[in-house]
Every structure is written in structure tokens, then in C-alpha cells.
Amino acid sequence: AYCSDDAENRNYTSSITFLKDATPPSVSIIYPLALNYSINISNLNYTYFDANPGGCKYSNSSGIWNSTSNIAGVNFSNVKSAEGWNNWTLYCNDSAGNINLKSVSFLKDTILPWALYGTGTDEDGANRSRNWIYVNVSVTEAFEANITFLLYNTTGQVNKTVSTSQMRFINWTDLPDGNYTYNVSARDSVNNLG
Description:
Elements: E1 2-5, E2 10-13, E3 26-31, E4 36-37, E5 45-49, E6 53-59, E7 70-71, E8 84-94, E9 99-108, E10 114-117, E11 133-140, E12 144-153, E13 156-163, E14 169-172, E15 180-188
Parallel strand pairs: 4-9
Antiparallel strand pairs: 1-2, 3-5, 6-7, 6-8, 8-9, 10-11, 11-14, 12-13, 12-15
């Protein structure tokens, strides 16, 4: 601003400095990614760029709970991830108040599947006079990928059946006389085997 006083020919000058910044910071989450993990996830790593840095915070429950703010660009450690699906959102601002956010959803499954032989399955060491073997199982696993039924005799593997449809039983029929063993395993979506 410029002012003039004509009576004494004096000039007065005043200036104001301000920052014009309408661009939000550039933010990317680099860990965790939108994947399935069989380990505990306790870090939130990200990249941040802005000429006028501010701060960042995260929510690990879609905004219901938010962390305290960190200096922009400083990764978060000791983050709590839950068993099952996690939705994390990173909120970053700059010193002008512009905000950017990025979100990631991932599955954490650290619990091994549990398979248990059920009703109708012969006990170990049973001697039967028939040409079939029936196996029934119950499986405890929230994120089941498949169940594998394996049948062996003294010469090797007789049958391998992999089911992705949560099949819980199998009946191997028309078997010749001999000694047989079987095994059932459950695999989850992060490749844990039980």
C-alpha cells in the first residue's frame, strides 16, 4: 500500500507478506500395501512432499480413532493392527491448511487354521473289512482358502483332492485291500497351513 501526505510531501509505505498455497501435499502409503499378511503389521510408512510441510496423523478404524499428529514425513511405528480386515487412513496437511488423505485396506491373518476329524471318521489304527474310507472334518478358519484330503497306501499317494468350496468330507471308494493312511489340511488366504 502507498500513501501520500500532500501537505508535507511525505510518503508512507506498508507491505504485507502472505503465503498463497492452495495445493495439498503429495502423499502415498508405501507400507502396508493392499495385500494379505500372515504377520503382525505395526508400521505405517509413507512418502510426503510439500514446499510448506505440516503434520500427519492416521486412523486405523475409518475415522473413529485418530493418532496424535507427527511431523510430516515421519513414519508411524507401534501401530495396532487387528486380526482380520484393517482399514487405515493417513491424513496429512501443510502449513497452509491444505489436506490430503490416502487409505489402505489389508488382511492380517496370523492364526493357523484348525482341522479336526469329525463324526464317521475311523479312529487311528482301525481295521475294517470294506472297500471305502470315509473322512469328515470340521475346520475353524475365518479366511479359508482350501482343504486338501490326501490318501496313501504302502506304495505311495493314492488320491489328492483339493477343495475350495469348503467341502468337509470325502469318501474314497473301490479301494483294494491294504493299509491306508490319510491326512487332511486346511490352508487360509495368507498360506497358513493347519
